[in-house]
Each structure stands twice: as structure tokens, then as C-alpha cells.
Amino acid sequence: MQRLLNLSWLVLAEQDRWRELGAGFRGDRAKLDMHDVWIAIFALIAVVCGILILARITARQDTRRVFNSPSKLFRTLCAEHRLTAVERKLLQQLSRAAGGGQPAILFLTPSAFALREIPKSLRARAGEIAALSTKLFGDAAATIDANVEAHELIDLSAKIDATES
Predict the structure, then answer these.
(1) pTM for the complete prediction?
(2) Burial letters for 54-83: b for 16+ Cβ neighbours within 10 Å, e otherwise?
(3) Residue 5: which pLDDT band, with cuts at 50, 70 and 90?
(4) 23, 110, 115, 147: which sits with the fewest CB atoms below 10 Å from its CB?
(5) What's the whole-number mean pLDDT along residues 43-63?
(6) What is the average pLDDT across 82-107?
């Protein structure tokens, strides 16, 4: 601590050097030419532009807030899959008939399109539902239907074997 005090007194004691720091701003050297003005203007413009760019970036990030909107999620998924209005309506009806959950869930559950899962009220539209399933899930939907049917057959044969013995 003592060394720091000694050092500060030493710096303050050399006042001649402190006076010389401002020597470039006195007398004939105190002139300001246009070159210096233009440099200052361009520096100021660069700082203002930088601030504006940062403000725009942060404003854009503020608009990307996370929120919970199941209806908007459903509309976005339908738009991404290029579903027609009739197909959208069918998905909503399928969701309501299956239990009233969010229709967007159907995009994650290909098994909901299996024939055995289709509610009786929509069985007449089974062909449309199968086409929609293929549009959403491709060949995976047919594989899931085949697997579900295979499991059902296995379960059925196990039940028959159990009743026979």
C-alpha cells in the first residue's frame, strides 16, 4: 500500500509532463482543418449505424417470442404439408371424433389413421383418411397399418388358441 502512495506522489509531482499533453491544442497547432472534421463525421455516422443495426437485430429477436398456440401450430403444419381445406377439415373432424384433443397431435401419430382407430362416425370416409395418412406419412403409414393388423391377427390367434385349449 505504501508503494502505491509513493508511486501516485511521483506521478503527480511531474506536472510538467501533464502540461505538455495539451501543448498540441494551443497556439498555431490549435487549428482544425476539414480533414479532421470529415473523419469525425464518418466516425459518428459509423457509430450511429452500428447502434441502429444492433437495435434492429434485437427488435427482430424480440418478435420471435415463444408462445403456445395450438391452432397456429395446426395451421402451420397444414401449410407445410400443403393440405387442402377439405383435408384440414377432415383432420379436425378426426381429432374431435377421437377424443377432442388438439388436431396437431395427428401429425405425430400415424397410428391414429389406422382403420381400427377411425371412429364409426368417420368410417365412411376411410378412403380419404387413408389417402391423407399416405400424404402425411408416406409409406410409413402403410407399414404401421400392416403392423397393427399383424399384431391384431397375432392377438386374435392367441385368443383362439386359448379358447381351444
Answers:
(1) 0.47
(2) eeeeeeeeeeeeeeeeeeeebeebbeeeeb
(3) low
(4) 23
(5) 89
(6) 87
* DSSP of the chain: -HHHHHHHHHHHH-HHHHHHHTGGGSGGGG---HHHHHHHHHHHHHHHHHHHHHHHHHHHHHHS-----HHHHHHHHHHHTT--HHHHHHHHHHHHHHTS--GGGGGT-GGGGSGGGS-GGGGGGHHHHHHHHHHHHTHHHHHHHHHHHHHHHHHHHHHHHHHH-
Residue with grid cell 377439415, as numbered in its chain: 89
Q: Cell match 509513493: residue?
A: 6
